[in-house]
Automatic annotation (TrEMBL):
Gene3D superfamilies: Medium-chain alcohol dehydrogenases, catalytic domain, NAD(P)-binding Rossmann-like Domain. It comes from the Bacteria. Residues 188-308 form the Alcohol dehydrogenase-like C-terminal domain. Residues 23-148 form the Alcohol dehydrogenase-like N-terminal domain. This is Zinc-binding dehydrogenase. SUPFAM superfamilies: GroES-like, NAD(P)-binding Rossmann-fold domains. It comes from Mycobacterium vicinigordonae. PANTHER family: ZINC-TYPE ALCOHOL DEHYDROGENASE-LIKE PROTEIN C1198.01, ZINC-TYPE ALCOHOL DEHYDROGENASE-LIKE PROTEIN C1198.01-RELATED. Keywords: Oxidoreductase. It holds the Pfam family ADH_N. InterPro entries: ADH-like_C (IPR013149), ADH-like_N (IPR013154), GroES-like_sf (IPR011032), NAD(P)-bd_dom_sf (IPR036291). GO terms for molecular function: oxidoreductase activity.
Amino acid sequence: MRASVLRNGRMHFRDDVPEPVPGPGQVLVAVRACGICGSDLHFASHGADVLSLTEQMTGGAGDGGMGIDLKEGMGVDLDRDIFMGHEFCTEILEAGPDTDTYRPGTLVTSIPVLLSPNGVEPLVYSNATIGGYAERMLLSAPMLLPIPNGLPPTHAALTDPMAVGLHAVNRSGIERGETALVLGCGSIGIAIIAALRARGIETIACADFSPKRRELASAMGAHQTIDPAQGSPFDTVAPAVVFEAVGVPGIIDDVMRRAAPGSRIVVAGVCLQPDTVHPFFGIAKEISLHFSLAYDAGEFAESLRAIAEGEIDVAPMITGEVGLDGLGTAFEDLADPEQHCKIIVTP
């Protein structure tokens, strides 16, 4: 079977991957579309850091409500090929033994986990469990969601990132009448903007150095776009809620210093380096600081519904499409914000 795997920090095409065989409660599916996630790019470049930081956590890594202990599922050997791909839309081929599910040919998606005799296996990074960067993979029958309204697989595959944005918005508790500021217009920031617009927030501002990303943010629902090179967004916007979707050291502290008293900050950007903040800023202003990871099953289903019913149009996000043999180049291209937002893999 054909697949693309991470090896020594780069994606490599293989045509000799063993065919997955569904067990009880599982289904074999053909991957029709899989989005390339920014977390995959991070892992390709900083896999050792991700694994080290995950190992340092106590009490489990948390799960964003998905019922997955990410720490439990992170036994990854960087010296072996790694399967990835968790933003997928698939077609059912066959069910495992004693498994009731939708009929073959049904398009489905799922939160990226696989139930097996070994427990819960996150379909994120694995040496053994195949993800969406392959022709076929296994999914758990109880977790399948059928794709409604004839939604194209390339659009349905973006349910996962849209759910990440929705979860961040839900964490904020934002209400109509409040102003939102989104810092960073990569895929996470764009998903947050889309969720805010679907929520009916009347004033959505965003900031990014990239003209292409600011243009996309407008298409996805931002009312005001700001170039940080021309000055701080806080010079022109007085947000009640700030969404940090950049993920570089210094951003959180700068936001706390500039934000108004009583502001709420939701951190959705993934920063792998140590950072420093001045608690005084947060204490003096009574700022609420929240961190956001992934989503829960209800948010995943709600995001699929919103896309299928046209409440969120993900089409502007899709800026490229490649086959399994093009993943290496796609990972390199995504490093340039002026080229792409979301590249879809169509095996």
